[in-house]
Write a structure and sequence with these properties.
Its main location: membrane. It comes from Carassius auratus. It holds the Pfam family 7tm_1. It is a multi-pass membrane protein. It is found in: Cell membrane. By secondary structure, the protein is mostly helical. The chain has one domain: Rhodopsin 7-helix transmembrane proteins (Rhopdopsin 7-helix transmembrane proteins). It has a two-stranded antiparallel sheet with strand order 1-2. Strand 1 and strand 2 form a beta hairpin. Helix 4 packs parallel to helix 7 and helix 4 packs across helix 8.
């Protein structure tokens, strides 16, 4: 989700205690026609920059993955590459579509920057915008979780991985993820809940700060809960995979020490580059997703929980906090492609050679699963 073009905005109020969908005004403050905010149109050069950067970054990362897929069509990495490619395509589409929708609203505000009252976007437009926000928000989280589970199976159960993780099942998983996100995003389009313009009027989402209906509260709760569950699954799966790789490395070093004492020399088996590359990328994706999405998801969860408890909070500070959390979440689509651009095998190999030139070497072939199969066949 792109930054929502909210660096500054015109303000006006007829009743300083009320904030409705057609008036944007600070609490307890009246702004006349000579206010600088009304004289100067909003500046959004930074938003143009981040939108362009995000689109270019995703295109570059997709080109890198396409090159990797061409080289490794018969390798165990193909399911991971397919999921990663779908993730980047989703990030690119979400970046462009939601950014364009937000830009349209913002340009409307620039056009009417001298007008005291700001007209809300059409209901159909807001529903489309809100549906895109939910869909393109959930898909990356669900895909990241699926990638983590796939790698966990590949590292902990290398012999069963080709049987469990087939390309047919991976494609079905992508369809299931898409269907799940579409259902949750499309319910308000069927009048089950609603999407509302959000502060400061340049994006639409499920209401979380205003007086909510039970349906709206349940939809927002489902969105935040599903997002937090996927983040938890990613963290747990990546932790298990990382521990398995460290355990394999520790066993290898123990064998090396034992043989060295007996024979005086030993050529240690290299660290398996495919597993290291994919695990490094997954760990980076998980960290980025947690840092970017957790504040937004947790804020929604807390807000809805307080609604169920009957606790009312000052609206304006809450709206600003939600906007800040959204801006942080929008950076997830910008940072995801850089994981694949910077954390490629060639870059990792050069970095590890600089850190441990005599002890840590990457090979051009093989993975933990392939190595495990070779050890089994030798016995």
């Amino acid at each position: 989700m792109e930054n929502r073009f909210t660096s500054s905005f015109p303000v006006s109020c007829q009743n300083s205690r009320d904030y409705n969908l057609t008036t944007i005004c600070p609490d307890n403050q009246t702004v006349n026609s000579t206010s600088p905010a009304l004289l100067n149109p909003p500046a959004f050069g930074m938003s143009y920059f981040t939108m362009t950067l995000g689109a270019l970054s995703n295109l570059i990362a997709l080109a890198i993955l396409a090159h990797s897929y061409a080289r490794l069509r018969r390798r165990a990495k193909v399911p991971f590459l397919l999921l990663a490619s779908v993730l980047l395509v989703n990030d690119l589409a979400g970046h462009v579509i939601t950014g364009a929708l937000a830009l349209h609203l913002h340009l409307g505000r620039v056009k009417h920057h001298r007008v005291a009252v700001i007209v809300e976007p059409p209901q159909v437009y807001c529903k489309l915008f809100g549906g895109c926000m939910v869909f393109f928000g959930l898909c990356p989280l669900l895909l990241g979780s699926a990638m983590a589970v796939e790698r966990c199976i590949g590292i902990t159960q290398p012999l069963l991985h080709p049987t469990i993780v087939t390309m047919t099942r991976v494609r079905l998983t992508v369809l299931l993820i898409t269907f799940t996100a579409l259902v949750l995003a499309g319910l308000p389009l069927l009048n089950v809940g609603d999407y509302k313009p959000q502060f400061p009027g340049t994006w639409c989402f499920l209401p979380v700060n205003s007086l909510l209906s039970i349906t709206d509260a349940n939809l927002a709760l489902a969105f935040s809960t599903l997002g937090l569950v996927t983040l938890t699954v990613s963290v747990v799966s990546n932790t298990i995979s990382g521990l398995k790789l460290f355990q394999a490395r520790f066993k290898d070093r123990c064998v090396k020490s034992s043989i060295t004492r007996r024979h005086g020399s030993y050529s240690s088996s290299p660290l398996h580059s495919l597993d290291v590359e994919m695990m490094t990328q997954l760990a980076a994706i998980t960290v980025v997703s947690c840092v970017c999405w957790s504040p937004f998801l947790i804020y929604i969860l807390i807000s809805v929980s307080r609604f169920y408890e009957g606790i009312r909070r000052p609206r304006r500070p809450c709206e600003k906090m939600l906007l800040l959390a959204l801006r942080l979440a929008s950076w997830n689509q910008i940072l995801d492609p850089w994981v694949y651009i910077l954390l490629r095998r060639a870059v990792l190999r050069r970095l590890l050679q600089l850190l441990q030139p005599d002890r840590l070497v990457f090979t051009h072939s093989g993975s933990y699963a392939d190595s495990h199969r070779k050890k089994i066949s030798l016995h």
